[in-house]
Specification:
The chain contains four helices and seven strands, in the order αββββαβαββα. The protein has helices at 11-37, 88-101, 114-117, 147-172, and strands spanning 46-55, 58-64, 69-73, 79-83, 109-110, 123-130, 134-140.
């Protein structure tokens, strides 16, 4: 019967372990250390979400989930200020929607060029705050970048506005 075993006394095997297996293990430790360090934002550490939008010089439309302060321009161009607190269910939904759309990987500066169009584009500032991290993205409607990134930004803005409008409607009832 043949003996199948692994002895480290053979110099070829020692060389194999030192040149292939150990560097692979070190790379795995390095890779997973960074993966865990930059792990997705967890809802258990969630603090608040805020959004501001309008022209660059006047971001009149604002919402902050921590304070509940919500102000926006209505259809008659008058400023409406209300107190609107989102439920944990709504905040969890927005957190998951941001993760689904890849918000954590968005660049922080997605501003457009006003020289091309000559008019002020709508600017959105979206910020998710957590205990130890925060993610803030500045997005202009005329941003000229990857169409998938633009669609993801617009999708997240649409979801946030839908949640705010739904909660405002529920509050009025």
């Amino acid at each position: 019967m043949a003996y199948i075993g692994f002895k480290l006394s053979n110099p070829k095997r020692i060389f194999l372990v030192l040149s292939i297996v150990l560097p692979f293990l070190f790379y795995c430790l390095y890779y997973y250390h960074h993966m865990l360090k930059n792990a997705p934002y967890r809802f258990t550490d969630f603090d608040s979400i805020s959004i501001q939008y309008g022209t660059r010089d006047s971001l009149l439309n604002k919402y902050d989930s921590k304070t509940g302060n919500y102000q926006y321009l209505n259809n008659h161009d008058s400023l409406v200020k209300i107190h609107l607190l989102l439920t944990n269910k709504d905040l969890l939904y927005l957190h998951h929607k941001a993760a689904e759309l890849g918000f954590w990987d968005f660049p922080e500066n997605e501003t457009g060029d006003t020289v091309k169009t000559g008019k002020q584009p709508v600017r959105y500032i979206i910020e998710y705050k957590y205990k130890h991290k925060r993610k803030k993205v500045v997005f202009d409607e005329n941003f000229d970048g990857d169409p998938r990134l633009i669609d993801a930004n617009r999708g997240l803005i649409k979801e946030i506005n839908q949640v705010l409008n739904r909660e405002e409607g529920d509050q009025k009832k």
